Amino acid sequence: MIVPQSKFKLLAGEASLTTYTYNTGIAKHTFCKVCGIKPFYTPRSNPDGIDVNVHCLDTQPQAVNITEFDGQNWELNAHQLAHKSKEPG
User: Fold this and answer.
1) How far apart are CA 67 and CA 46, in angstroms?
2) What CA–CA distance (Å, rounded) separates 13 from 3?
3) CB count, 10 Å around CB of 83?
4) Considering the domain boundaries, does residue 60 fall inside one?
5) In which region does residue 30 sit, left (phi positive, over 0), alpha (psi from -120 to 50) or beta (all else)?
6) Is residue 89 one of the residues assigned to a domain?
7) Burial environment of residue 85 by CB neighbours within 10 A (0 to 12, 13 to 18, 19 or more)
8) Inter-CA distances, 56 with 26, 38, 88, Å
9) Which of 9, 26, 83, 84 could form a disulfide with 2 if both were Cys (CB 3.0 to 4.6 A apart)?
10) How many folded domains does the chain comprise?
11) Burial class (CB within 10 angstroms; exposed 0-12, middle 13-18, buried 19+) of 81
12) Share of the chain above pLDDT 70, in %
């Protein structure tokens, strides 16, 4: 689930997280130091957004809109999801 950075707020557990970057440094992969799960990250395709693992939320969203996406060829298709990290206007 991609949300604008301004709509994301980590409420607890920051001390248990670590961030990994590589290559361009744009994507920021956040992992739990204890169990290794990736609860959220800043995607290279949407650096102004946060991609949240909905399975890591305390409360599951009422509804989630799923958009089919070709992840193997993501650079050719990233424009299809760019609006997900933008503020509603």
Assistant:
1) 15
2) 19
3) 12
4) yes
5) beta
6) no
7) buried
8) 23, 9, 24
9) 84
10) 1
11) middle
12) 75
24, amino acid identity: T
**Residues 25-59: tens digit of each pLDDT:** 889 999 999 999 999 999 888 888 899 998 888 88
17 pLDDT more than 60: yes
Q: Which helix (H) or strand (E) holds 20?
A: strand 17-20
The Cα–Cα gap between 30 and 40 comes to: 6
Beta strand segments in 23-78, E: 28-32, 40-42, 49-52
Instruction: List the domain range (segments joined by +) for residue 18.
Output: 2-84
34 within 8 A of 16, measured Cβ to Cβ: yes
Which CATH number covers residue 7?
Answer: 2.170.150.70
